[in-house]
Amino acid sequence: MNFSNFNIKIFHTNDIHGRMLFDKNNESIGISKISYLISKLKSKNKNVLLFDAGDVLHGQTIVNTSKGKSAVKLMNMAGYNYFTPGNHDFNYGFEQLLMLQKDMNFKVLAANVVFLNGKLLFAENDIIKVENKKIGIFGLTTPETAFKTNPKNIKEILFNDPVKIAKEQVKLLKNLNSDIIIALTHLGIDDESIGFRSYDVRDNTEGIDLIIDGHSHSELSKIKQNSNKAIIVSAGAYLENLGSVDISITNNTKKIKAENIPFSNFILTKTDKKVDKLANKIKKKILPLLCKIVGKTKVYLEGKKSAVRTHETNLTKIVTDAVKKKTNAQIVFLNGGGFRASINIGVITMNDVISVLPFGNFIVTKIISGKDIIKMLERGLSKYPAPTGSFPQVAGLNCIFDTNSVANSRVKSVIVENLPIDVNKNYLVATNDFISHGGDGYNMTKNHSEIQKFPQIDEIFAEYIPTISPILGQDETCRISVQNLKN
């Protein structure tokens, strides 16, 4: 690195979702290799920083079993400097996140996350002096956290308008003579998030130089840059890349160069032995659970994000069938965003099960009217064909919807127990506690009475697999059918 005049190098990650370990098959770089690279560079020059843009503390067994503690330990060893929480970092409840903060050797920034009385949960910003330059950094968390974690996890928390807060932060940091201003955000660029996106912050705020973003799992190459505004960077997801940014100032002229360093560049990279030792210690504790074999499959079970957020798959059908059998509900209603991995042909382990369903959601049954069930379907199908976490994965009903109709009037037919759904009749519906509390915008479920609680969905799935093992295939009947009714 050339540090003539002024130059700082920032590495960044986002949406790791607990994938902390090197994984050749799933192309995850792993914290140990990143730690080795960062420590090597920092030993030569202190103008090196490491940021994370959220959704790291939850998602895989290695972090879930400790409620995020193991992730924090590994991030500390890797030398992270700044972190802004993502929606899934609240999955253990905001109280746990505040407890984890006490063990973090890096700073947590979130200027728009406040208690109901307006008090900040975390620091709003920080200024770090590098050589003779001041770098002002502020954090923003998506307001979608209000429904993209279980609402009970953030019941005392508000997520203020990121554009409004960004403007306030830039003014504040400029008044403190910041030479460079960085927004560390978990906002994303998805169209479904319009109003809250990093695009919205960039296009409506003057004075930001760099936005390090997360939430939408976006590759740098997919981001639409605006040459007159801040550069937005993002490293995709799951540690498939490491983001890298060089900021230089020569004769008061700023230059920013950004790239994503792909997994392929790290295959031969050395690892940090201290991180390896800690990771192996953590793995040893959970290995008996992860390695337990629960069944076999002779077909690939599809659970990738792009699939489960747009249509039903053989895997989602099996999981919803498992919930139906366990609860004896008439209808099962889950959200596509709750599915996070596929299962390859061969033996099925508990690690596979937890990878598919990592959020630890409990299943509950509620009595819900036919009228509100239709509203649930309308909500889940409102943005189709855009992939959304709210896309319905169901059992016990068949729905036909029309993509040519406007949102909230797309559902044309619903059949339950071989009869058209009765809007005035009540049905026993099994769902997860995320939807039950209004998650993913399913507010129509909140006020219905809870009948019974059941174990976590991953436990129900694991219990069901042996009863159908080896899995040979799945019913081809469409439960959610697209039909274009207008010519």
Key descriptive features of the protein:
487 residues, alpha/beta, Purple Acid Phosphatase, chain A, domain 2, 5'-nucleotidase,  domain 2, 2 domains, 14 helices, 24 strands, 27% helix
How many beta-strand segments?
24
The CATH fourth-level homologous superfamily of the largest domain: Metallo-dependent phosphatases
Looking across the biggest beta sheet, what order are the strands in? 4-3-2-1-12-13
CATH topology category name of the largest domain: Purple Acid Phosphatase, chain A, domain 2
User: How helical, in percent, are the residues?
Assistant: 25-40%
Largest sheet features:
6 strands, mixed
Question: How big a fraction of the residues is strand?
Answer: 25-35%
Q: Which CATH first-tier class of the largest domain would you pick?
A: Alpha Beta
Q: What's the shape?
A: globular
Q: What is the arithmetic mean of pLDDT?
A: 93
- Give the termini separation: 61 Å
Q: Nearest-angstrom radius of gyration?
A: 23 Å
Low-confidence runs (pLDDT<50, min 5 residues)? none
Structural overview:
The model has no long low-confidence stretch (mean pLDDT 93). Helix content is 27%, strand content 26%. The chain folds into two domains: 6-284, Metallo-dependent phosphatases (Purple Acid Phosphatase, chain A, domain 2), CATH 3.60.21.10; 292-482, Alpha-Beta Complex (5'-nucleotidase,  domain 2). It has 487 residues and is of the alpha/beta class.
